[in-house]
Design goal:
0% strand, 434 Repressor (Amino-terminal Domain), single chain, Hypothetical protein af1432, mainly alpha, elongated, 2 domains
Length: 268
């Protein structure tokens, strides 16, 4: 596809008019129209600004031979995952998990994953299935890890044990700004590193998030996610690895995390 075709396709996918693109780039709509008809090519500065506007790489604009694939936002049905987790909790007599499933589903009701129509509960349920596949019983903490930050719940009202509440407390942090983010996040990860189970849940959370960040985050946020993961998570993985019961999990999580990051870095 030509540069003009790429610009037109990306503009239409984002439901922008030529006039809106022109306003953002401080050019005339006739200039945008001429680019899309391949009568003229935008200069380097305009290509960079177009890439930022469309939240893509410059190569996505200039590559003339591209293959496009149909993509999916989800692979599994969240209702099926919920049924599976509840049935497993009953079979294994996991009381915290049994109570946490419905609580989490109700707390996240009507919430969606970023930039999608995917129910938010898909994320904690996916995490729960992840740890179940590794035969690790921190399922309740996986289900509840976001309810304090995102749902206005308090630690004391969670219908689970003190151990699970403590894990959820460690996994929750206050909102950050550009000015205080480094300070808050450093203290946050220090707290998580003090508890191997919290470290495990956080690593599962990060694996799930980097798997889906391609459609939920801007390029700037993806870059920040990569940098943060490389800064803080090696220590968490070492904390997990030091626990004999979590040794295999640490290996699997490290493999998934590092392989996904390498894919993203090459594509970006």
């Amino acid at each position: 596809m030509s540069i003009g075709s790429n610009i037109r396709r990306l503009r239409e996918e984002r439901k922008l008019t030529q006039e809106q693109v022109a306003d953002q780039l401080e050019v005339t709509f006739q200039a945008v129209s001429s680019w899309e008809r391949d009568e003229y090519r935008p200069d380097t500065e305009k290509l960079i600004r177009l890439a930022r506007l469309f939240d893509v790489s410059v190569s996505a604009l200039v590559e003339e031979r591209q293959s496009f694939f149909r993509t999916k936002e989800t692979i599994y049905d969240w209702q099926h995952m919920k049924t599976y987790v509840k049935a497993t909790a009953k079979t294994l007599a996991l009381e915290d998990t049994r109570k946490a499933v419905d609580y989490a589903a109700n707390a996240h009701k009507d919430q969606k994953r970023k930039k999608s129509d995917v129910p938010y509960i898909y994320h904690p349920l996916n995490m729960a299935c992840h740890v179940l596949s590794m035969s690790i019983t921190v399922i309740a903490a996986c289900l509840l890890h976001d309810v304090i930050e995102d749902c206005g719940k308090s630690i004391n009202e969670l219908p689970v044990s003190e151990e699970t509440r403590e894990i959820v407390r460690l996994l929750s942090h206050v909102k950050t700004t550009d000015e205080n983010r480094d300070e808050i996040m450093t203290a946050y990860y220090e707290g998580i590193a003090s508890n191997p189970k919290a470290a495990l849940v956080k690593c599962v959370d990060r694996c799930n998030n980097i798997t889906t960040m391609c459609w939920g985050l801007s390029r700037e946020r993806i870059y920040r996610m990569i940098k943060e993961t490389e800064q803080y998570f090696p220590r968490l993985l070492d904390v997990i690895k030091a626990e004999p019961d979590f040794n295999n999990a640490a290996w699997l999580l490290r493999y998934q995390m590092e392989s996904m990051l390498e894919i993203y870095k090459r594509l970006m």
